[in-house]
Design brief:
Length: 378
């Protein structure tokens, strides 16, 4: 016998009150006449509410009445007994936050309800089972369901219950849950950020090992007699200039070697270290001349991030004594941030700069010579 023919829930949100209609059909209800004081259970179901709230429920039905019903009416569970109905839910709902109504409809859901009634909250059941419980031992009289001994008023031999569950939430509950959800989201976000940071650090460390150990290298760069062993794929992926250069060099020669003469050895090391790790050693940014050399290399090989790092370092060293030099460097290497900062410094300190020898260098850069007066009158 299939007692659980179907169970359907319909959720209908409405502001802070969340409603659900649940239909449960018990097939062959007539065959359950021997279940005196015994119950059957519906499949458990969940009702979604506002935000991430969710409650879990299960319907319990006594076809011949529960023990309390039989004892109260001193009946042996006969035809004139009761049908007992209970709804059990998750324990985090306050007793005054839910209203439950039950009625009987026909098996085709024509909604000709029979004796719709509200199921009261049962605190004694909650204490025993640690779950919310709404119900009534005398929910329906069996004689209201039958025309005679073996005939249901309802079509067929199936009984369909409709339960309407309305759950409301206090503003405090909403705020508390929102805070909890927010804290949880922040914790997850932090864990995710930490994981990403750790992953990046591991990648930097691993690529740094590749640069140091020279494993599987397929390219040698000769820089003033010092040879740097590298990986073509890494250099090509990081620098568009290296990508084009290596395609040409490798096509013309199978030696796996290239020569670079316009960059000194220290700068070449720092540039390659950046290409592999995305980092710059502090020692490479100590001397202004070293930073300028690195800026030249970054511009030549189109390493934009390295170029920004060099610009920011030079901007931090900017003063009246080097403003003209840095302005020219910014123009030469299309380092916009450095150029703009140097221009502002020159405009601000023009009385100190105008009479210096460095200022005379602007004559060799006509475009800059025109830009300075314009900047002063902005």
């Amino acid at each position: 016998m299939n007692k659980y023919f179907w169970l359907r829930t319909e959720s209908n949100p409405c502001n802070s009150v969340m409603g659900a209609r649940v239909f449960w059909t018990i097939e062959n209800f007539m065959d359950l006449k021997d279940l005196i004081g015994e119950s059957i259970l519906s499949p458990s179901f969940r009702v979604k509410h506002s935000g991430s709230k969710e409650t879990k429920w299960q319907i319990q039905l006594y076809p011949r009445g529960d023990i309390a019903s039989i004892a109260a009416h001193k009946l042996p569970g006969g035809d004139h007994g009761h049908v007992s109905v209970f709804l059990r839910g998750t324990s985090d709902i306050k007793k005054d936050h839910a209203r439950v109504h039950v009625s009987i409809v026909d098996c085709h859901l024509h909604l000709n309800r029979i004796h719709e009634k509200e199921l009261p909250y049962l605190p004694e059941k909650v204490a025993e089972e640690e779950n919310m419980c709404y119900g009534d031992s005398t929910a329906f009289q069996r004689r209201d369901l039958f025309l005679c001994e073996d005939d249901l008023k309802l079509p067929g031999e199936s009984l369909t219950l409709e339960l309407k569950i309305d759950v409301s939430w206090d503003a405090e509950d909403e705020e508390f849950e929102d805070d909890c959800q927010s804290d949880k989201a922040e914790a997850i976000k932090k864990e995710n950020h930490d994981s990403i940071t750790k992953s990046k650090e591991e990648a930097i460390k691993d690529f740094g090992k590749m640069f140091e150990n020279k494993e599987f290298c397929d390219l040698e760069i000769d820089c003033g007699g010092k040879v740097f062993s590298c990986h073509q794929n890494i250099l090509s992926a990081r620098s568009p200039v290296f990508s084009t250069m290596l395609k040409i060099e490798m096509k013309e020669s199978d030696s796996g070697k290239v020569s670079i003469e316009d960059i000194n050895q220290e700068t070449m090391f720092e540039m390659l270290y950046f290409i592999y790790t995305g980092l710059v050693n502090d020692s490479a940014l100590t001397e202004t001349s070293d930073v300028v050399e690195l800026l030249y290399a970054a511009d030549k090989y189109q390493l934009d991030t390295l170029k920004d790092i060099c610009q920011d370092k030079l901007r931090s060293l900017l003063d009246a004594g080097n403003a003209i030099e840095f302005l020219i460097l910014g123009e030469k290497y299309q380092a916009t941030k450095l150029k703009d900062s140097a221009m502002m410094e020159i405009v601000h300190l023009m009385p100190k700069i105008a009479d210096t020898e460095d200022y005379q260098k602007v004559v060799d850069h006509p475009n800059l010579a025109l830009e300075i007066p314009k900047a002063m009158f902005k």
